[in-house]
Design goal:
- The chain has 370 residues and is of the alpha+beta class.
- It has helices at residues 45-56, 95-108, 118-122, 141-145, 161-166, 172-177, 193-207, 211-223, 248-259, 272-278, 349-358, and strands at residues 20-25, 63-70, 73-79, 89-90, 227-232, 244-246, 263-264, 267-268, 283-284, 292-295, 300-303, 314-320, 324-329, 334-340.
- 28% of the residues lie in helices and 18% in strands.
- Helix 1 (45-56) packs antiparallel against helix 11 (349-358).
- The termini are close together.
Length: 370
Amino acid sequence: MPSASPSPPRVLARACALLACVALTAPACADEWPRSTPAQLELDAQGLDALVRDLREGRLPYVRSLLVARHGRLAVEEYAAGVSPDDLQHLQSVTKTVTSALIGIAVERGLLSLDESVVDVLEPFHPTLRFDDARKRSITIEHLLTMRSGTGYHERGFDSPHSRLNQMASGWPRYYLDLPMLRDPGTHFQYDSGGVILLSSILHARSGLHADAFAEKYLFGPLGISNVRWFRNREGHPHTGGGLWMRPRDVAKVGQLYLQGGRWEGRQVVPASWVARSTSRQVRLERPTESASGYGYLWWIRSLAPGDAPNGDGVISAEGFQGQYLFLVPSMDLVVVVTSKAPVPEQDRPIEFLYTHILGQGSVPAAPAP
């Protein structure tokens, strides 16, 4: 359920003179996925053949990549519009799921706790911060992960707090914490990239590493992911709400990591308890869509069958502006990655074809943007 408000690159591109994109490289390693046919993997071969045909024949004009993997084996890997397997794709808000993993690793290492006050973490590094509402001291890290901070941050329109923050070269924490409080923390879900961006500063405050370096050391390095790019501000803070570029194959690796309980090649990369907790419904949506029923720690919770919301689950998804998706179906050991350059009315098409062509469970209306 990506925001309808523009995220990088559209808004951030206007600030390129002030901000820098940084490429990270890690030691190269073999990362070719083993392959099988849809039939061999007991997938809906007819549905997938039709979907691939639609992509190749231009009936999905905005899709740039489509990967479907089951049991750790690729059944479908398609690229369109001149995109190649090694091209980095802008993940938009799918970035948030990577951020969730980083926070889980930090919690496991004793650097953070979910019930910590955000203000208590950041105040020593920003001594001039002033708070006109005592409720701000009650905002916890868990509130940011579940988008229930209670602040006035929203992403509706080109003059929204989200658009303004994206154009700032520095001062992201102050801008966010200066926003008025509209509700008590923990009482209301409001889609909020600003709080996720604030997690970058929190991670740096406690680990001494910016989120990009933390990810390289504790997440991407162990996965053998050798080429990513982050958008970051003048102060070095990566845009952890929507500023990450990755290869689709590497996005699928993150998904496979979660299906494996956070383990990769015998190593526990993300704590198993975090994988379970972060992909479980922590928030029940007040206005569920046809298939979305809740939110975890920066993961959406969707029903396995269309129409089962508001109580359904079974599909876990990371979703970004312009049609970026990482779908996980744990009961099927299934990973689906889609990257797109879709206008807002078309950005939910992957949700539709997930059900109609991949899961084979009939049509589902595309969810409106919040």
